[in-house]
Fold each of these.
Amino acid sequence: MLIYLAQRLLALAFVLLAVSMIVFTLMHSVPGGPFDTQQAKLPKAARENIERKYGLDKPVWQQYLNYMSHAVRFDFGIPYQQPQTTVAALIGKTWLVTLQVGIMTIIVAFGLGITAGMFAAYHQNSWVDNIVTFFSMLGVTVPNFVIAMWFILFFGVTRQWLPTGGWGKSGDCLCYDLLCSDWILPVLAYALAPMAIIARYTRASIVDVIREDYVRTARAKGLGESKVMRRHVLRNAQIPMVTALGTEIPNLITGSIFIETIFRINGLGKFFVTSTLNRDYPMIMATFLLVALLWGITFMLTDIAYTLIDPRVKLGAKKEA
Amino acid sequence: MVVRSHAYCANPPLRRPLQKAPRQRKNKIKTIYGLPTRSLLFTPLVLALWLHTSNAQEKTVTGLALPPDAAPYAEQVLRIPCNNSANAVTFDFSVSVYQPYCGSNFFNDPLVTFDKALNPQPGAAESWSVADDGVTWTFILHQGLMWSDGTPVTAHDYVATFRFSADPDHAWDFAWYYTFVDKGGIKNWDEVIAGELPVEALGVRAIDDRTLEIITKGIFPPLPKIMKYAYALQKKALAEHGPYYNNEPATAVSSGPFMLESFDHGFKVVFKANPHYKGYRPPRLARIEGIYMSPATYFIAYLNNEIDTINFNDLSPADFATIERDPELLANYLRPGLIGTDYVFFDPHNPPFDNLDVRKAFAHAINREAIVKSIYGEIKAVPAHTMLMPGFPAADITGDLTDYQRFDCGLAKEHLAKAGYPNGADFPPQVMWLRNENPGIAAVYQAAAASISQCLGISIQVSNKDNKVFMDALHERPTKIALGSVAYAIDFADPINLLGIWVSSGRHSWRHQRFDEILDEASNLIGEPARRDSLFHAAERILVDDVGGAFIAHRWAGDLWRPKVRGASIRDPGPNDTYGSHSGNDWQWGDIYIGKAQ
């Protein structure tokens, strides 16, 4: 296991290196620079000053080497969007908030999604199944910014039941600020799409397993339904679920520009878009590397999860001849 | 007059500690109608004190009396929306123009401001004059201007700011401006920003604490108008804390009407009235709260009573539809004037647009009236046939230039046939570039392209490009954009501002020697305003006749204000029966106040 983990971490380092090269090349290939202004072209001298100030006057390969030599020491530079701070500090500050949103969303989406999927599978083709399917389709097809606006209009403006945003700064909080009223709308709006996907996957996986012979045998032996579901159905349905659902996690914990801007959450999500639009090279690099790292770790953890779910899976075991 | 400190503090007063009940007196006290006689002796004193206190509550921290219809001073709080996805780094114009925080320029006064007719008015400078050489300008600062730390504002602060702006190490994003205004640029500006001369060589110096001298590159009569952008940073704070000193309440120092109270970036910024303020716009408001949110939710937040104003740029077509249906909203949507011009531009050096008849065909094929009526909405724009909008100096108020670009599909077809493309036959398909426009504005340009296509029988595809891709291609020489649509808004109220983008060294590839010559002559002219205007008019005639651009619409500026927000600067009519917050109207921040609930 340890050798396997070491190999995966080494591979992850190479993946990050490759991602950094591709992103660096692409962002410097796109027309337009970080300091092009709206109204008029900067005078040549002013442009040169800015480029010198940010090290953009050097050849691209040299800029890349400079960047990487600093990045390995966790110095990711100064964001052009907020030059009074550092990329690391900015990500550290904003990602904490995004992580909080993401974790809450994961709890809600996975909790409700798996439960709904199980009910739908168990009551296949019944009205329960139809309702779950309807809401799953709604969650998948309606974008979260539309859902967010509906929520704000209904719960915030019309009914005035909940604050329209702020993340811990506008609403009432309970339990030493562990639960705030202004968390409800963003988490629900953000969770709806993944919840729908999770419900669909869960239903499909369980429906496949529930028809297996060993489930029928378990019932024939006289096992209670809850035991059949827990020991024989859920356990065997978990592998495809983990494969499909694990990939939702990096998406959720890196935030959404729509949810964060609409609900006034000062998180990391918006920087994925604004950095690209503003050609904020240091932030583009850092955010892409962060995403690549999270995906790498997720895949690694998914592999480990397989061994926990199914003892027949051995990590790093060579194929028998 | 000093106001009780808690009068403008939003925090609730601290709860008093529980007090013990007073012991009962055993002595008998004389009374009149149940009141102790001794206490009646103090009645006049209590009454006077009450009157004094109630009057004091109606005055601001700078001692200004509030209007009779104003709400109590503690309620003088204006809530403004702030874009939580904006790329912003500073409150100060001299640090960055294109990355401003919400509430920028509350901390400094410009040398010059504008009245409702866009005439320059004293700002931080009480007066200005130009020497006989035509290039040496002297600005005298108002007596007694103060920073919020109690130190005086001096001409040395302005000199330090100009030098900082030109410093090659600062690499100011607005450095292009003093190059763009050409003769109006400060002497040695280009050399200093290039690092060829030291910042001390810049043509700006302090004669004494109140006298600032600015030397321009050449004769430039409208210089006072561009001093609207001359804001001062505090020399001392700049040296001690660097250019971002205003981003932290601990180091922030203000010579403007407000000062930074708290700043939680991405959530809320709070400005409070500056008690040391001695400038031209003493604030009636006690506080301004900037609440960060997505522009997509501004209108909802306004309807939900979370904010008090929205700028027209942040209102969607759907929002405008709601405003136009609601009499109260409509009455509080105030339009101060036309702010910019939308136009189609061409690459006139390559086929097919090197042919004047093709350009004329395009100009006559745009159904401006229909576009304004059905796409923009008449609340947002008027049809344009020229670059200068009605109400702007030297604008074509007689309609003399209208015919050059009026919508006439028959005439447009004639021009296209003359150019060798009868009924659009063999006309190469075109792509019209847009500059990352929002859906509302993109629809306007789509409609212009559709109008041209339908009239002339040609194919135009519209492509909404990334902002930086568009600007890079636009600035290339020769330009990489054969056909594009864009807008330009007022920077300062002089025809040279809007016509200057069409000179050979300007924004577009269109060239006309005579146009350049007339503009040059007009911009140098001193003391003959009528002749100056007629020269600009002649230049604009060349522009519309030679179709440097095909003009579509002039945009109305506008702001939606909550009815309780009052003040002559926005509620009283200006020229042409306009209302609201006009271009360059920074004196409104001293004027507006919250009215009593009706």
Note: Chain B touches chain A through 52 residues (CB under 8 Å).
Amino acid sequence: MKPLYIALLPAAGLLVTELVGAPAPWRWSFEALLIATAGFWLWRRPRAMADTGPVVPMADGNATDTPTAPATPLLKEVGSILTAESASTAEEVQRVVGLIHESVTSLASEFERMSEIAKRQEMVVTEILEHSSGGGENSVNVRQFAEDTSRLMEEFIGILTSVSEQSVEMAHHIDDMVENLDGIFGLLDDAKSIADQTNLLALNAAIEAARAGDAGRGFAVVADEVRSLSARSTAFNDRIKAQVDKAKEAIDHVNATVNAMASRDLEVTIEARNRVQRTLKAVEDMNVFFAMKIGEVSELGDEQVAAVSTVVRSLQFEDICRQSLQAAEIGLDRMRELAALLENASRNPDAELSQELAAARSRWDGQRHKAVAQQDMDSGDVELF
Amino acid sequence: MSIEVKKSSDGKELTIYLDEQFNFAHHKDFREAYRNESPGMRYRVNMARARHFDSSALGMLLLLKKHAGGDKAEVILEDIPGEIREVLEVANFHKIFTLR
């Protein structure tokens, strides 16, 4: 019972692997390994018995004299199990090969697309960079605009100041003019006192003429004329005074206008200038921020392209898997061969199973050495495995 | 309160002390402060008391500068309160006067 029991162990192992749900390629490789182990154990079994004699009793405990004979039905059973299992495993291996190929192909094309997209993205970023740095003819140069506004603002303040200067200067001239007008008033007062004195003189002359009687009659006429002349002079003087008064009134109006021209509140202007400067600063900050972030995006794009190309390179694992699975298929072929040997041995008890097994084993060993050597040479091509 | 004037002991420097208000209403007083001074006089305008400037104040200062001899004459503006300094700088007066 014991050999059968141990022969079932790999089958149980297979079952466990299935249940655990290990990744496909490794699961199948492991299965192949388990089957190979089972086959190997069965192949070793008769030899071990031949070497050590009746250490382990076979089924029914009478295997001491003819070791192969009682195992005949068991050999047949194991052979058919091996055949069936290796056939289904070979099928699965083929499926895995197909799956890996299909997935790797679609992954590769998708990653190529990603790489393409990353490159396009980088181009767009580069365009944005060129555009925002003011290289293009049609680009809106916010900085230039802010500088122009700032300069216009200064020009405006300059004009305001020079208008004020000229207005105050004008006010000074008006002050001078008012002084001159005041001088005219002084002169007019002089002229009035002359007229008053003339009037007084004429009055005295008239009195003297009356006292002279008939002899002074002619003189009285002259005195009368002088009096009326003095009165006209006074009236003339008053008219000039009235005109000069009007002129002074007009000058007061001019003064008010000049005042309004000269006195501009500067707070609004200063606030506007500060606003422009704040805007300029904000725009500069924003430009710096954008340039920095766009640079970062550009770097990320480079990293993305590099990562994608690493992934594409990593997809070469398909080759290695295919090689491993080919090795697994060779293992399965050997199991089929082994099964055939076992079945042959079960039908023909005289066949030299141990010799055939030894021959097969040495052949397989030779092949395995070659395969290992080849795998070592290939392993240099792909760094990631 | 109005504009005050002090002449240095050697008679070569004239300091004009502005009042709290310095606007168009003061144009006559301000001009009187320097009007009769001969060329070569050095001028200082002390603004320690000044609180508010409009554009006429700037115009009056420019006329003082003109009287002092224009570009080649130095006119010193001193004890300038912060808000007035801002006005003077906006008007680029730091290029025309010596601000202290």
Note: Chain A has two domains: 2-133+314-378, 142-264.
